[in-house]
Amino acid sequence: MTPTGAAERARERRWRPAGALDLVLTLSPHQHGGGDPTWRRTPDGAFWRTSRTPDGPGTLRITAAAGEVFGQAWGPGAEWLLETLPALLGADDDISAFADTLARAAASGAARTAAFVGELAARHPGLRVGRSSRVFEALVPAVLEQKVVGMEAWRAWRRLLRTYGDAAPGPAPEGMIVIPSPETWRRIPSWDWHRAGAEAVRARTIINAAAHAVKLEATVPPPSGAAGCAEADRLLRALPGIGVWTSAEVRQRAHGDPDAPSVGDFHLSGLVGYALTGRKVDDAAMLELLEPFRGQRHRVAWLITLSGRRPPARGPRMPVRDYRSF
């Protein structure tokens, strides 16, 4: 990692993944809406993201060519962002474990389903479950997305970041922002939560989680694979307002947990059920369908959402609410 120039105070790193890597798919879970101030993809194909690292705010730019990833970073958190770049892009994602899981599923009587999932994986060989290693940064948008449509949650996310976040270090695209610190989230007054469209329940959940941010951050990287992710799940769900869905959303992004399906998602069980059985199912039935793939259930569900198999849209859509008018 070397400086690219004193004026920009940038750092650089080149990294060659061991196998195929699809940057779009692998990085997409870390974006929260089209106007996410912490995320941008520019016309030159570069991915930009901001983070409040253990060393301070930082901006990361990622490009890839000829099988090599090129990272540039700015700000106090630049070195940390480059050090953790491979993990963010799935360097620790054990694809061989996924192959073993498919083989076991086929042998256990789920041969047809395993073959279908294997075909999906072959279509997306560069999909990786990466980890950001920043738990609180994954938790805040997940809480804002609880029981509301994405448009509503992303509107609140944008407003709160633009009001309380910090400008992105370096030559980041205009409007990029670093998420506020946990201490700042604890100080946001009730009226600004209301103006952002986040009601008191979600606000209290985030404020309380901010008070335990240090303990939450200590859960990454997972010390012992699945056991470490299970401990992270326990700690997350011990906090008021954080249930199985929110914990899974956080662990997928911050811990790179391939076995954290989003139970409770408004659409996921219907998608999985329809793709595998031709009919929509509930969460309990979805977990039964995914059980042969235990250890890789999130990855399998993710691949299924990419399959294009969707049930007919016949039911009412979840409405967009605006708590600012209440």
Write the layout of secondary structure elements.
Blueprint: E1 2-5, E2 10-15, H1 23-27, E3 39-41, E4 47-53, E5 56-65, E6 68-74, H2 78-83, H3 85-88, H4 95-107, H5 111-123, H6 135-144, H7 150-164, E7 166-167, E8 177-178, H8 182-187, H9 190-196, H10 200-211, H11 213-217, H12 226-237, H13 244-255, H14 268-277, H15 283-290, H16 297-305
Antiparallel strand pairs: 1-2, 2-6, 3-4, 4-5, 5-6, 7-8
Helix pairs in contact: 4-5, 6-10, 6-13, 7-9, 12-13, 14-15
Protein name: DNA-3-methyladenine glycosylase 2 family protein
InterPro entries: Alkylbase_DNA_Glycosylase/TA, DNA_glycosylase
Keywords: DNA damage, DNA repair
CATH topology of the domain at 2-88: TATA-Binding Protein
Binned strand content: 5-15%
Q: What's the mean pLDDT score?
A: 93
Q: Helix coverage percent of residues?
A: 40-55%
Walkthrough of the structure:
- This protein has 326 residues and is an alpha+beta fold.
- The protein has a domain at 2-88: TATA-Binding Protein.
- It has 16 helices and 8 strands.
- It has a 6-stranded antiparallel beta sheet with strand order 1-2-6-5-4-3. Strands 7-8 form a two-stranded antiparallel ribbon.
- Strand 3 (39-41) and strand 4 form a beta hairpin.
- Helix 4 (95-107) packs antiparallel against helix 5, helix 7 (150-164) packs across helix 9 (190-196) and helix 14 (268-277) packs across helix 15 (283-290).
- It is globular and about 55 Å long.
- It starts with a strand and ends in a 21-residue tail after the last helix.
- Mean pLDDT is 93; it is low at 1-6.
